[in-house]
Every structure is written in structure tokens, then in C-alpha cells.
Amino acid sequence: MEEPQWMASTLLGRLDPPARAALLSAGVRRHRATGDVLIHEGLLESHVIVLMDALVKVTATLPKHRQALMAIRVSGDIVGEMSALNGRPRSATVTTCRPSTVRVIGRDSFRAFLRAHSDAAIEVAGIVADRLRWANRQRADFASYPVKIRLARALWEIGVRYGRRTPDGIAVDLDITQQELATLCGAADITVHKALRELREKNLIGTHYRSLVIRDAEALKVVARLDERWTGEP
Fold first, then answer.
1. By CB neighbour count within 10 A (0-12 exposed, 13-18 middle, 19+ buried), where does 212 fall?
2. HSE toward the beta carbon, residue 72, CA cutoff 13 A
3. What are phi and psi of 169, to 5 degrees?
């Protein structure tokens, strides 16, 4: 059977074939339905999960029971690595956005894998650094741009990385609530609702229940004020 083509930004996409095979031979393969929670925020557990064929969202709890959308992860990505490395409680919840196949690897097995494959350990460190860089960029955006631009950036990035081409544009079939989208942009729900309405009125996007279509990606990119050198990779 031909091996899947993992995205270059994911851990499986970065590993050489022997290291990838060693990682995929560890742990237990599991199938999960849409909406299943793979990792629970606050729990003291330390296994890691490799996303074989999966799409998940990473959320964190805010005051007043609000949920903040922190990230989206795709096939080839790893989640839960921080608790495996530092032994601290989970910092976020990971939930499947579609039926998914994953591999659950215990902390001891994962750490043994990293000791045996130094190049893989470097790649894991690189992924952690990339995610920190993305978080720093988000904070800079919060301080530098109004909500409409931050929203346009978030929608463009999500569409480019996770959307699928359709006759109507780029469809994003992710189970993301408006509240989660607002927290991703660091804004109030009502402010994001207004910005979404403006983008719809300009026919840049179309919104449906927990899904959206980017009708004009290039125009949305202009609204987002994205430099041509920026690729959307965290």
C-alpha cells in the first residue's frame, strides 16, 4: 500500500522513512468519531497522539465557560507532546472534527523513540518552536490590527491550510463556533459577528451553520494585509 503524503509542516512529513516507521509502529491504533475528545484539558496524563488520518481542533477554557480556539491539527500532526515532555497537566482539549484514525503512544515509548532517533527529537523541538512563533505572531496581531483584519487573517489561513476547492470557492468544513472564532481573533462575539457580516456583504465569504466558504481568497488576503512572503504556515 502506498504511504500517504503527509504535509511538510507536520511531524510525519518531517521525519525520514525509518524514523516515521518506528514512530508509527509504537502505541495503539484507534478510530474515533466526529466530536470525540482525544485529550482533556487539566488531566494529568502524558501519552501523545499521532494523527494518522484526522482533523482536530485544539481549545482551551476561558472564564465564564467560554472556549478559545487555539489551533487546528491535521493528518501527520502530533498532539499532547508537551505533557509527555514535561509531565504537566494538559493545557488544552483536543476534539475530532471528522471521523479520525489516530495512534496513541505512551510517554515512556515516545521518550524512548526520541532517544533512539535524535533527528526526530530535533524535529519535535522544531514543531514546538514553530507553534510558539505562531502564538507570538497572534499576540502581535492583537496589538497591531483591528478585529476585521485579524478575522480576515484567521479565515484566510484556515481556508488555505484546511479548506477544499469547490465551484463556490474554498469550503471550510470545520466544526468551529462563532464564539471559538472570536476567541481566536481575541475579540468579542458581537464584534466578530459584525466583521463577518461585512465580509459577507462584500461577497468575500459565505457562512453556514459551523462552516463557511471563502468566495474570493485573493480579496480576503488584501483585507487581511498579508505580505506575499507569508505562507500561512505557523
1. buried
2. 24
3. 140, -145
Evaluate whether 78 touches 20 at the Cβ level (below 8 Å).
no
pLDDT tens digits along 149-171: 889 988 888 888 778 888 889 98
111 grid coordinates: 521518550
User: Would you say 76 and 21 are in contact if contact means Cβ atoms under 8 Å apart?
Assistant: no
Q: How far apart are CA 66 and CA 63, in angstroms?
A: 6
Give the three cell numbers for residue 80. 499532547
Per-residue pLDDT of 55-101, as tens digits, reads: 898 888 877 777 778 888 889 999 999 898 888 999 899 999 889 99
Q: How far is CA 107 from CA 5, 75, 86, 136, 203, in A?
A: 26, 20, 10, 28, 48
**Other beta carbons within 10 Å of 144:** 10
pTM of the model: 0.76
